[in-house]
Amino acid sequence: MPMNEDLERFDQYPYSKLLDQQKRELVFAEAKNIGENNASRIYNEFGSRDPFYIAHQEQVSITFDVHDDVNADYVKFAEYHAKKKNIVLNEKSIEIIAKSYDKGVVENLILTHELFHHFEVSRWGLTSKKFKVPVVYFGLFRIGRPVLAASEIAADAFSQTLNNTAISAANLENAYFSNID
């Protein structure tokens, strides 16, 4: 069963807030399972847990950028640019988190998280689109929005599983916010 902090991720995204507790728990469990299973598939395919090696094999470029806009309300760890097959890691955020965790571990976790999004786009389809939040009804037709939190939950589980660690994205966020000056 997910902890409350796990379910708080739903509150970060529009429409995901509309899910009741039972639906959140179901989406969380299924998304986590997707991330864990895909991590096993990728490990078996590449024979490695090293996200830099996997990115290289996938021809995904990695760049480091310094976003000096340290913010007490929001943190940007990285970005994945699908069309360019590029992951940009935020060096400043990594350095701040590295006050609490080993810098190499932090880089690997964040890079692996972004690699999950690469694989979503290039192979598996977006996890968020597997789950819908009903928003509007038109007669018999229901219009739903993707549950964006599902992709983030799956990416976190993927990252933890591939890196064989219990350190989560929430742990990294907490380290960031506790270490900013």
Q: Can you put this structure into words, describing what you see?
A:
The structure is a single chain. The chain has 181 residues and is α+β, with helices and mostly antiparallel strands. The protein has helices at 4-7, 21-46, 51-57, 91-97, 103-124, 148-162, 169-179, and strands spanning 61-65, 78-81, 86-90, 132-138, 141-146. The strands form two sheets. The chain has a three-stranded mixed beta sheet with strand order 1-3-2. The model has no long low-confidence stretch (mean pLDDT 89).
CA-atom Rg in angstroms: 17 Å
Compute the number of strand runs: 5
Label the structural class. Answer: alpha+beta
Strand order of the largest sheet: 1-3-2
Question: Approximately what portion of the residues adopt beta-strand conformation?
Answer: 5-15%
Outline type: globular
Determine the number of helices (DSSP H or I, runs of at least 4 residues): 7
Q: Helicity range of the residues?
A: 40-55%
- What are the low-pLDDT stretches, counting only 5+ consecutive residues below 50? none
The N- to C-terminal Cα distance equals: 35 Å
- SSE run: HHHEEEHHEEHH
Outline the secondary-structure elements.
Elements: H1 4-7, H2 21-46, H3 51-57, E1 61-65, E2 78-81, E3 86-90, H4 91-97, H5 103-124, E4 132-138, E5 141-146, H6 148-162, H7 169-179
Parallel strand pairs: 1-3
Antiparallel strand pairs: 2-3, 4-5
Helix pairs in contact: 2-6, 3-5, 4-7, 5-6
Short précis:
The chain has helices at 4-7, 21-46, 51-57, 91-97, 103-124, 148-162, 169-179, and strands at residues 61-65, 78-81, 86-90, 132-138, 141-146. It is α+β, with helices and mostly antiparallel strands and 181 residues long.
